[in-house]
Specification:
mainly alpha
Length: 140
């Protein structure tokens, strides 16, 4: 009768040491990889914590610039409205506007109208048509 544990070969001290070295190399490699992964995660979390306020600051600066631009437009509109109010409170302005719209003038007053942009374009087109070279006449 043979016992299975007796037939088994007992490793030598050198073989045991070799097996330990192989296992320890694998464990050391795994520890290095785990350390690198841990450092990457820490770096990502730190960058998120540090960059988030910077991103918020940039967003707030953009909103501030938009708000300042809206404020400038509102102030310009207010100034224009105030000027119109001042002109409208002047009775001479109303008289002048009524005469302009009716194309009438006081005695000794002349009305000079500047054409609008559309009228100018139309006049330029008509002038170009007139300037077009004529076809030469045939001499037979």
């Amino acid at each position: 009768m043979q016992f299975p544990f007796i037939s088994r070969r007992i490793p030598t001290l050198e073989e045991i040491q070799e097996q330990r070295d192989i296992r320890s190399k694998g464990i050391h490699g795994m520890i290095k990889v785990a350390g690198i992964i841990f450092l990457v995660l820490v770096a990502l979390i730190a960058s998120m914590l540090l960059l988030n306020p910077i991103l918020e600051l940039h967003t707030l600066e953009q909103e501030r610039a938009r708000a300042e631009q809206q404020l400038r437009r509102a102030k310009a509109t207010e100034a224009e409205a105030y000027n119109k109010l001042l002109w409208m409170s002047d009775p001479e302005y109303f008289e002048q506007m009524a005469r302009d719209r009716a194309n009438q003038a006081k005695e000794g007053e002349h009305i000079i109208r500047r054409p609008t942009a559309e009228e100018r374009q139309q006049m330029e087109k008509e002038a170009q048509k007139k300037r077009q070279p004529r076809k030469p006449r045939r001499r037979d």
